[in-house]
Please model this.
Amino acid sequence: MKFTYYGHACFSVEVQGKILLFDPFISPNELAKDIDVNSIKADYILLSHGHGDHVADALTIAQNNDATIISNYEIVNWYGQKQGYAKGHPMNHGGSWKFDFGKVKYVNAVHSSVLPDGTYGGNAGGFVIESTEGNFYYSGDTALTMDMKLIPLFTQLDFAVLCIGDNFTMDIKEAVIASDFIQCNQIIGVHYDTFGFIKIDHEAAKATFSEKNKSLLLLNIGETVDLRVEA
Ligand code: NI
Ligand code: MN
Model:
């Protein structure tokens, strides 16, 4: 599966020929200034919660690509009623839906959620994606939570995208525990370095994972990797 990192907690994964873009926050991100938002392709845009550092460029990219926004009910509704963009698929915690690329389950995250204009953004969540090409989990912004232990009961993960930057979310040590809870050893870190509060030591972070025989990928902004998954 082709995985591209766009900085902060924004990334895309190509699944069954469809491009899934997560949490686009590019134009306000100084570290991602070399990324042209208008060049980004997406068939679906998945939003974990309503905070600006996850939705900033969602409308622009959705309009550019006629993409479907997948998020919780409140956020999809906000795009439909307040942003004039009605192509969305609303979900809520614990629910799944089969799309043309595979199945999405919206799962718990422990975090807050408000949209940029102050509208209530529902409960923050994460996503579990299952497809014939592989399965992965994106935690969204969250604390370490026991709810993560539910994920391997229904999905065997090939990789997971976890927030690791501390202050607003779990930190690296807790992300290692999260990787145990979800029974996954291939982790891609997000939500670090963008702001002063979440700067991390990359080598120390990778070492914390490798001590537990797990891998932590910290990609360069704009970098694409082909994630090999077990057949
Ligand atoms: Ni947030
Ligand atoms: Mn955030």
In short: The first strand starts at residue 2 and ends at 5. DSSP finds six helices and 14 strands in the chain. Residues 51, 53-54, 141, 168, 191 surround manganese (II) ion (ligand 2) (CB under 6 Å). The chain has a mean pLDDT of 97.
